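RECORD TYPE: inverse folding
INPUT: structure tokens
STRUCTURE:
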């Protein structure tokens, strides 16, 4: 009798320890780029995961320091100072390639994504960690900046030597660097042996592998209401980036001024509540989500096509949803949506 109990107990232990060794969800949160970065992995190597997250933290803190548009003495701050003085600056290979990508996306988006408008973004008060207060800038101030038309086409590269023909160019990578960095994070996790992961910065995310037997499934926040508007399964290597005018804004006398600026008018975007893009290139998806918010409910399909995108969802300020056919075929709405418009292929 006694030996039967021992065998049963031993069997139970073997089963339990077997369970212990299987892959499980591991989770850690970092504070980077002024937001919380949630890193989740499905792995049987918690120690390796913790080590990878420590490495990621170092990488992200460095990117935050070097690519900050207005704080500290990082590379981008130094570059903007040089360009304002009419001088060229030799930048790192990484910043050089980041800026060249940004330049291409600016051109492809007809400059609706325009990271050269740092001065305008600063004028609206978004070069601050706190939400800006008080009245919006005066029209004359906005026009004074607009007439110089700072653009990424003013910027040229000789190797990693960056120069500009327009001293009003001030680069702000706020619409682009996060997506680029999320992609890098996934690559770095993979390199360190973490193959199934999701890296999520406030709803903007990239994934690798799967969540066990199933793909990673994520929710896209409703830009006008509460909770999730739609969920979507995200495949290995894909990123989902959303630009929303609810994220940061200035409020004065009951009017909200969003942090996404239309570079043509100098005023914040008003008719789009959010734009979501899925792509395997995080930087492209990020730049595009911003550009499509600016493009608005009529022009977005043209800009999406020019940027080579097939998976887009736009929600306008009335809650009307616009989808590409490929996006429609993969999302599931989680709330009642009154009107959905699907573009033709
Ligand atoms: P996102 O949330 O990706 O749309 O990025 C918004 C941030 O990008 C803002 O906080 C600004 O720093 C910057 N930004 C605003 N408007 C534009 C624009 N039209 N093109 C490029 N960057 C922009
Ligand atoms: Mg963006």
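DESIGNED SEQUENCE:
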């Amino acid at each position: 009798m006694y030996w039967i109990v021992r065998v049963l107990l031993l069997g139970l232990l073997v089963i339990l320890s077997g369970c212990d060794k299987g892959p499980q969800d591991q989770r850690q949160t970092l504070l980077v780029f002024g937001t919380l970065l949630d890193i989740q992995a499905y792995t049987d190597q918690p120690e390796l995961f913790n080590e990878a997250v420590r490495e990621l933290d170092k990488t992200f803190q460095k990117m935050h320091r070097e690519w900050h548009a207005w704080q500290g003495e990082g590379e981008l701050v130094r570059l903007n100072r040089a360009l304002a003085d009419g001088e060229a600056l030799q930048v790192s290979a990484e910043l050089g390639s980041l800026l060249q990508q940004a330049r291409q996306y600016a051109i492809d988006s007809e400059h609706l994504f325009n990271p050269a408008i740092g001065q305008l973004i600063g004028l609206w008060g978004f070069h601050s960690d706190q939400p800006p207060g008080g009245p919006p800038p005066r029209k004359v101030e906005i026009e004074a900046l607009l007439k110089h038309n700072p653009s990424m086409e003013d910027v040229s590269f000789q190797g990693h030597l960056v120069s500009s023909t327009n001293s009003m160019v001030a680069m702000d990578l706020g619409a682009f660097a996060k997506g680029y960095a999320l992609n890098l994070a996934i690559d770095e996790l993979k390199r360190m042996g973490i193959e199934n992961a999701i890296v999520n910065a406030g709803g903007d995310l990239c994934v690798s592998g799967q969540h066990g037997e199933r793909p990673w499934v994520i929710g896209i926040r409703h830009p006008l209401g509460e909770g999730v508007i739609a969920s979507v399964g995200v495949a290995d290597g894909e990123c989902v980036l959303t630009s929303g005018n609810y994220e940061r804004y200035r409020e004065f006398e009951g009017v909200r001024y969003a942090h996404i600026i239309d570079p043509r008018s100098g005023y914040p975007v008003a008719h789009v509540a959010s734009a979501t893009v899925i792509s395997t290139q995080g930087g492209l998806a990020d730049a595009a989500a911003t550009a499509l918010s600016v493009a608005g409910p009529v022009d977005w399909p043209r800009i999406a096509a020019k940027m080579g995108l097939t998976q887009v969802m736009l929600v306008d300020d009335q809650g009307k949803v616009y989808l590409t056919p490929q996006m429609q075929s993969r999302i599931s709405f989680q709330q009642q949506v009154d009107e959905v418009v699907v573009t033709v292929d």
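NOTES: The CA atoms of residues 25 and 221 lie 23 Å apart.
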